[in-house]
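Pasting as-is:
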Amino acid sequence: MNEEKQHSQQAPALFDQYRTRGPTQPPTRNEMETVEDSPVEPPSAETSEVGMPLEARRALVLLLRQGVVMADSKRLAFEALCRHEALIAEYLGNIFMHMLLDMKAGIAILLQQETADRDEEADEASRLINKRTLSLYDTLLLLVLRKYYQERETAGEQKIIIDIERIEALLAPFLPLTDSSRAERRTLNGSLTSLKDKRLIGAVRGDDERVEITPVIRYVVNADFLERLLNEYARLADEAGAQTDEEAQDA
């Protein structure tokens, strides 16, 4: 748990950066925002003149294209990002971006610089990572996966794997808030594919019924915000369920 708190303090939570400002009322459909995969068109690794070694330029190109570089799958690129962190940080700073580097977890994440003194128009003009609004269903899926990851990491697990049926069970209490039902596996599969594209989860080789939750999810929702939002959504789901029961009785 101490490690979890340390992650929350050191790393910016993307939901904290991009969610709608306001009191404790949770976002409803089309109000929650997160970042998409980076749409940046990177310089050529072979022709760039940014004063970096070739391995650093190639690693930078990969980071700009994917938004996330993980040591598990791209070890050489991740090691290059670590070795040339200062040069890469200088380059990214010139285009209003920065790299969050977690050497222990083996993750490099590309983030947009958030500057308080820039007005909204100037901020949009300099933004290379677009915002995308999450549906309520996708938001709930992300929250329950983050909660599960936190619980299993606290229990000492190194690789967090969850099966699809377990995900459905975790989502079930919140379904009164959505237009989906427990039986709609197609909706869940579509949302899981979207999270895979953002490298928040990964496939388990040879097993289509389970997914691995990657450490990237730590930086999307911090622990304090996770608990607060889940509690509020649970309260709203209970109210929605009670209202549905009353309407059924009146009918």
